[in-house]
Amino acid sequence: MEKIDPNEFRKRRDELYRILEGIARHADQQSQGRCPYKNRYNQCTASFGCRNQRKPTPPESKPRCVGDDKLNYRGAWVV
Ligand code: SF4
Q1: Which atom belonging to ligand 1 lies closest to the Cα atom of 37?
Q2: Does the C-beta of 76 come closer than 6 Å to ligand 1?
Q3: Pair 54, 38: CB distance under 8 Å
Q4: Is 25 in the pocket of ligand 1 (CB under 6 A)?
Q5: What does the pLDDT look like over 1-34, one tens digit per residue?
Q6: Residue 13 alpha carbon to ligand 1 centre in Å
Q7: Measured distance CA(75)–CA(79) in Å, rounded
Q8: DSSP assignments along 5-63, one per residue
């Protein structure tokens, strides 16, 4: 088995950390405002009621989400 160069290992680990840190920071910021049930088409995928849900168009699709991604969406959930 080939020996691992500790310096090369450290260099690659630090590079991986740098990349993942940026991704994690961006995901963390997005999760502060955008509801996790809102898909990329601004449709609601939740299986519970929410004040931000509006009738789907067309009727057979998922409900529309009118949340503005600025409010704390958790208060709108009907449990
Ligand atoms: S309607 Fe409510 S639960 Fe659904 S995506 Fe919008 S904020 Fe989230």
Answers
A1: 5
A2: yes
A3: no
A4: no
A5: 888 899 999 999 999 999 999 999 988 887 777 8
A6: 38
A7: 10
A8: -HHHHHHHHHHHHHHHHHHHHHHHHHHTTS-TTB-TTSBB--SSEETTEE--SSTTSPP
* 35 C-beta closer than 6 A to ligand 1: yes
The answer to pTM > 0.85 is no
Cα separations (Å) of 79 from 39, 47, 48, 50, 63? 20, 11, 7, 9, 17
CA-proximal residue: ligand 1, atom 4 (nearest)? 44
Q: What is the pLDDT of residue 31?
A: 75
For residue range 27-64, what is the model confidence (pLDDT) as tens digits?
888 777 788 899 999 999 999 999 999 999 888 899 99
